Protein backbone atom coordinates (compact mmCIF):
# COMPACT_ATOMS: atom_id res chain seq x y z
CA UNK A 1 0.00 0.00 0.00
CA UNK A 2 2.83 2.42 0.84
CA UNK A 3 4.45 2.00 -2.58
CA UNK A 4 1.12 2.47 -4.32
CA UNK A 5 0.45 5.58 -2.25
CA UNK A 6 3.84 7.07 -3.16
CA UNK A 7 3.27 6.34 -6.86
CA UNK A 8 -0.22 7.86 -6.60
CA UNK A 9 1.19 10.98 -4.93
CA UNK A 10 3.88 11.36 -7.61
CA UNK A 11 1.16 11.01 -10.24
CA UNK A 12 -0.80 13.84 -8.58
CA UNK A 13 2.35 15.98 -8.39
CA UNK A 14 2.86 15.51 -12.15
CA UNK A 15 -0.79 16.34 -12.95
CA UNK A 16 -0.81 19.46 -10.75
CA UNK A 17 2.55 20.57 -12.15
CA UNK A 18 1.29 20.22 -15.72
CA UNK A 19 -1.90 22.09 -14.81
CA UNK A 20 0.27 24.88 -13.39
CA UNK A 21 2.25 25.04 -16.63
CA UNK A 22 -0.98 25.23 -18.62
CA UNK A 23 -2.14 28.17 -16.50
CA UNK A 24 1.01 30.21 -16.96
CA UNK A 25 2.81 31.86 -19.82
CA UNK A 26 6.21 33.50 -20.20
CA UNK A 27 4.96 36.77 -18.69
CA UNK A 28 3.74 35.13 -15.49
CA UNK A 29 5.97 36.11 -12.61
CA UNK A 30 6.24 33.22 -10.17
CA UNK A 31 7.27 33.98 -6.61
CA UNK A 32 8.50 30.76 -5.01
CA UNK A 33 7.97 32.22 -1.53
CA UNK A 34 4.29 32.79 -2.32
CA UNK A 35 3.88 29.32 -3.83
CA UNK A 36 5.34 27.90 -0.61
CA UNK A 37 2.98 30.02 1.50
CA UNK A 38 -0.07 28.94 -0.55
CA UNK A 39 0.90 25.28 -0.12
CA UNK A 40 1.45 25.61 3.61
CA UNK A 41 -1.72 27.60 4.12
CA UNK A 42 -3.84 24.99 2.35
CA UNK A 43 -2.17 22.16 4.29
CA UNK A 44 -3.17 23.93 7.49
CA UNK A 45 -6.61 25.29 6.59
CA UNK A 46 -7.64 22.20 4.61
CA UNK A 47 -6.88 19.61 7.29
CA UNK A 48 -8.23 21.62 10.23
CA UNK A 49 -11.33 22.63 8.26
CA UNK A 50 -12.04 19.01 7.37
CA UNK A 51 -12.16 18.09 11.03
CA UNK A 52 -14.21 21.18 11.95
CA UNK A 53 -16.77 20.71 9.15
CA UNK A 54 -17.16 16.98 9.75
CA UNK A 55 -17.50 17.54 13.51
CA UNK A 56 -20.25 20.06 12.80
CA UNK A 57 -22.00 17.59 10.49
CA UNK A 58 -21.84 14.83 13.13
CA UNK A 59 -23.34 17.20 15.70
CA UNK A 60 -26.00 18.78 13.47
CA UNK A 61 -26.95 15.81 11.26
CA UNK A 62 -25.76 12.73 13.19
CA UNK A 63 -23.54 11.79 10.26
CA UNK A 64 -20.19 12.86 8.85
CA UNK A 65 -20.13 14.36 5.38
CA UNK A 66 -17.16 12.18 4.35
CA UNK A 67 -14.88 9.48 5.70
CA UNK A 68 -11.23 9.19 4.72
CA UNK A 69 -10.35 5.62 3.81
CA UNK A 70 -6.60 5.99 3.32
CA UNK A 71 -4.24 6.91 6.21
CA UNK A 72 -7.19 8.31 8.18
CA UNK A 73 -6.77 10.32 11.39
CA UNK A 74 -9.21 12.29 13.56
CA UNK A 75 -12.01 9.70 13.24
CA UNK A 76 -11.64 9.63 9.46
CA UNK A 77 -12.27 13.39 9.14
CA UNK A 78 -8.85 13.93 7.57
CA UNK A 79 -5.78 11.85 6.80
CA UNK A 80 -2.03 11.89 6.64
CA UNK A 81 -2.35 11.84 2.87
CA UNK A 82 -4.61 14.92 3.07
CA UNK A 83 -1.64 16.91 4.38
CA UNK A 84 0.12 16.33 1.05
CA UNK A 85 -3.04 16.54 -1.03
CA UNK A 86 -4.01 19.95 0.41
CA UNK A 87 -0.42 21.18 -0.08
CA UNK A 88 -0.64 20.29 -3.76
CA UNK A 89 -3.97 22.08 -4.02
CA UNK A 90 -2.39 25.20 -2.50
CA UNK A 91 0.35 25.04 -5.12
CA UNK A 92 -2.34 24.77 -7.80
CA UNK A 93 -4.42 27.64 -6.38
CA UNK A 94 -1.43 29.96 -6.66
CA UNK A 95 -1.43 29.45 -10.42
CA UNK A 96 -5.22 29.66 -10.68
CA UNK A 97 -5.16 33.02 -8.92
CA UNK A 98 -2.30 34.26 -11.13
CA UNK A 99 -4.28 33.28 -14.24
CA UNK A 100 -7.41 35.08 -13.03
CA UNK A 101 -5.33 38.16 -12.15
CA UNK A 102 -3.85 38.18 -15.67
CA UNK A 103 -7.32 38.81 -17.13
CA UNK A 104 -7.57 42.08 -15.18
CA UNK A 105 -11.34 41.80 -14.78
CA UNK A 106 -13.77 43.29 -12.31
CA UNK A 107 -14.80 41.11 -9.40
CA UNK A 108 -11.57 39.13 -9.51
CA UNK A 109 -12.06 37.94 -5.93
CA UNK A 110 -15.58 36.66 -6.60
CA UNK A 111 -14.41 34.85 -9.73
CA UNK A 112 -11.53 33.24 -7.80
CA UNK A 113 -13.89 32.04 -5.04
CA UNK A 114 -16.32 30.58 -7.58
CA UNK A 115 -13.56 28.90 -9.63
CA UNK A 116 -11.99 27.49 -6.46
CA UNK A 117 -15.34 26.05 -5.37
CA UNK A 118 -16.24 24.42 -8.67
CA UNK A 119 -12.72 23.21 -9.28
CA UNK A 120 -12.50 21.68 -5.79
CA UNK A 121 -15.51 19.47 -6.56
CA UNK A 122 -14.01 18.45 -9.90
CA UNK A 123 -10.62 17.75 -8.33
CA UNK A 124 -12.23 15.56 -5.66
CA UNK A 125 -13.89 13.50 -8.37
CA UNK A 126 -10.58 13.29 -10.25
CA UNK A 127 -8.62 12.28 -7.13
CA UNK A 128 -11.12 9.62 -6.14
CA UNK A 129 -11.36 8.11 -9.62
CA UNK A 130 -7.56 8.12 -9.85
CA UNK A 131 -7.19 6.57 -6.40
CA UNK A 132 -9.55 3.79 -7.43
CA UNK A 133 -7.07 2.98 -10.18
CA UNK A 134 -3.86 3.36 -8.15
CA UNK A 135 -5.04 2.21 -4.71
CA UNK A 136 -8.17 0.15 -5.41
CA UNK A 137 -10.12 2.38 -3.03
CA UNK A 138 -11.41 5.92 -2.72
CA UNK A 139 -9.19 8.31 -0.77
CA UNK A 140 -12.33 9.71 0.86
CA UNK A 141 -15.88 8.47 0.69
CA UNK A 142 -18.68 11.03 0.74
CA UNK A 143 -21.66 9.75 2.70
CA UNK A 144 -24.24 11.50 0.47
CA UNK A 145 -24.46 9.52 -2.75
CA UNK A 146 -25.60 12.38 -4.99
CA UNK A 147 -22.36 12.24 -7.01
CA UNK A 148 -21.41 8.60 -6.66
CA UNK A 149 -19.76 9.18 -3.24
CA UNK A 150 -16.83 10.84 -5.08
CA UNK A 151 -17.90 14.31 -3.89
CA UNK A 152 -21.19 15.99 -3.07
CA UNK A 153 -22.97 19.25 -3.82
CA UNK A 154 -23.40 19.64 -0.05
CA UNK A 155 -19.72 20.58 0.26
CA UNK A 156 -20.01 23.40 -2.33
CA UNK A 157 -21.13 26.06 0.21
CA UNK A 158 -18.19 25.05 2.42
CA UNK A 159 -15.82 25.71 -0.48
CA UNK A 160 -17.46 29.08 -1.16
CA UNK A 161 -16.96 30.12 2.47
CA UNK A 162 -13.46 28.64 2.49
CA UNK A 163 -12.52 30.54 -0.66
CA UNK A 164 -13.64 33.84 0.87
CA UNK A 165 -11.61 33.13 3.99
CA UNK A 166 -8.56 32.05 1.98
CA UNK A 167 -8.51 35.29 -0.02
CA UNK A 168 -8.13 37.26 3.19
CA UNK A 169 -5.56 34.87 4.64
CA UNK A 170 -3.46 35.00 1.46
CA UNK A 171 -3.51 38.82 1.54
CA UNK A 172 -2.24 38.90 5.11
CA UNK A 173 0.21 36.01 4.83
CA UNK A 174 1.78 37.44 1.66
CA UNK A 175 3.43 40.12 3.80
CA UNK A 176 5.82 37.46 5.12
CA UNK A 177 5.26 34.31 3.04
CA UNK A 178 8.20 32.26 4.35
CA UNK A 179 7.24 32.82 7.99
CA UNK A 180 3.58 32.01 7.40
CA UNK A 181 4.44 29.08 5.10
CA UNK A 182 6.68 27.62 7.83
CA UNK A 183 4.10 28.30 10.52
CA UNK A 184 1.28 26.74 8.50
CA UNK A 185 3.23 23.63 7.54
CA UNK A 186 4.41 23.19 11.15
CA UNK A 187 0.95 23.45 12.69
CA UNK A 188 -0.58 21.24 9.99
CA UNK A 189 2.17 18.65 10.51
CA UNK A 190 1.55 18.55 14.27
CA UNK A 191 -2.22 18.40 13.74
CA UNK A 192 -2.08 15.54 11.24
CA UNK A 193 0.98 13.49 12.14
CA UNK A 194 1.03 13.84 15.92
CA UNK A 195 -2.72 13.61 16.48
Structure description:
It is a single chain. With 195 residues, the protein is mainly alpha-helical. Helices cover 71% and strands 5% of the residues. Helix 1 (2-23) packs parallel to helix 3 (80-102) and helix 2 packs across helix 3. Strands 1-4 form a two-stranded antiparallel sheet. A two-stranded antiparallel sheet has the order 2-3. It contains 6 helices and 4 strands.
What is the strand content? 5-15%
Order of helices and strands: HHEEEHHEHH
Helical residue percent?
A: over 70%
Q: Regarding quaternary structure, how should these chains be classified?
A: single chain
Number of strands: 4
Mean pLDDT metric: 96
Shape: globular
Report the biggest beta sheet as strand number plus sense, adding barrel if it closes. 2 strands, antiparallel
Radius of gyration: 16 Å
Class by SSE composition: mainly alpha
Helical stretch tally: 6
Poorly predicted residue ranges: none
Distance between the termini: 22 Å
> Looking across the biggest beta sheet, what order are the strands in?
1-4
Amino acid sequence: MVTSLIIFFLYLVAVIYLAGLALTDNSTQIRIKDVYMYSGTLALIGCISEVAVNSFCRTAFDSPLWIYQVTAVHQGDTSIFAFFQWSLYGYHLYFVQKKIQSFKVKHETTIFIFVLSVEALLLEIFVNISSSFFLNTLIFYYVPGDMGHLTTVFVFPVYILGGAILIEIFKRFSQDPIFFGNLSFSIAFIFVFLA
